[in-house]
Specification:
Shape: globular
Helix content: 40-55%
Number of domains: 3
Strand content: 15-25%
Radius of gyration: 24 Å
Strand order of the largest sheet: 12-11-10-13-14-16-15
Largest sheet: 7 strands, mixed
CATH topology of the largest domain: Rossmann fold
Distance between the termini: 29 Å
CATH class of the largest domain: Alpha Beta
Number of helices: 18
CATH architecture of the largest domain: 3-Layer(aba) Sandwich
Length: 470
Amino acid sequence: MAGTGGVDYAAGSFRDRGARVFHAGGRVLRALSATALSDWRSIAQRPFFAHLQSRGDVVPTREVPPQEQAALRAPPWAAAVLEHPPVPFWSYPYEWCFGMLRDAALLHLRILHAALPEGVILKDASPYNVQFQGFRPLFIDIGSFTPHRADQPWTAYRQFCELMLVPLFLQAYRGIDLQVVLRGELEGLRIDQASRWFSGRDWLRPGVVAHVVLHGWLQRYAQRGTERTADTLQASGFTVALIQRNVERLRRLVERLRWQPRRTTWTDYDAAQPHVQLDRDTKAEFVRRVCAARHRKLVWDLGSNRGQYARIAAEFADTVVAMDQDHGCVELLYRDLQRRGPDNILPLRIDLANPSPALGWRGRERLRLEDRGRPELTLCLGLIHHLVIGANLPLDEVVDWFGDLTRELVLEFPCKSDPLVQRLLRNKADQYDDYSLEALESSLRPRFDVVERVRLPSGARVLLHAVAKE
């Protein structure tokens, strides 16, 4: 996003005026004001910061030497420029599963716990300050670190609750998917609103009274008065001496939060569907052959389920983004990646019939899914019937989207005789004359060459490998 003076500012970086991110020649850079530079040089020398970077909790950062800065087209107000390595694929909290948001919250608390004894605090507590590299959360907002005054409360506590703790409560205690809450409220669910989502019996659940009910009361009291929020918090017990204990209590609370996905057709898909077991080896061999043909930087696995084919792609790619609409599948995949890897698969909950749009200020603050990196190879296995028949999307429009998205495609087409297609049609009039293998290949033809096709052993599904025309 070009800014004043032609600076290529990163979308959403405008919120911290003194530490804005910009790009130059493919590099990720952060311009610092004089005040932010002073803070950075003070904090970068402290032992806790080096420890967090060595653990991989905080993004690697270097200060660009003055002689290099002239070629970077930094904003004229910049007193210095920092450089960070790029994140392979940008994701947002409203695309994460429960475990990912929980781990982002724990990362914030771990950083605070390490920073406070050395006189540093985080002025923000937003999950947007975290990005995932595979299954590993990484804190990226260096500008959020600031020296801590002896009389200063943790003013970001409210933001922590509204953007992380309350959505986690809603998922763990009420079964309300956090993605819906966070996508609809980019600044988080206000505490006074959140309190209405909990019934009286929820007050007995750990953390609800302290961090929702009483916090909401305090917020309403502060809004009626004339005092600054920071003064109100300090007067209410959030003094410097108690911040560390509050952080520790929050850590224990978040660590105990649990959400167990309910079993669905999709969480048990591989084991419960006979035709899936029959086709598995042939499909895996086909995917492996395509993936092994050459190394790719970015692969998307659409409708990834529990990640069986994403794992194959990950052997031959820098990054695989595994997307599925079923929150349970994404959560179980995330847990499994933490147990046994690999570390280059990023699991996201995405409804591909309604993918993440451009959101926020002028539609630029949060980028739409397709604008965060186009895949060189896209796997679309066991999905297209859900898009065309389940979501009523025209087949040619789905193929056109593939054509705009990717250079190479592995697509599984279940014919109408397939049991799952029959299930989708069970309570519908069959108005899908465009849903056939012939119609699919006809739609592919203007944009792709089909270089290989294989009928799977179940007999009702066909695999296609298509390559974009030059």
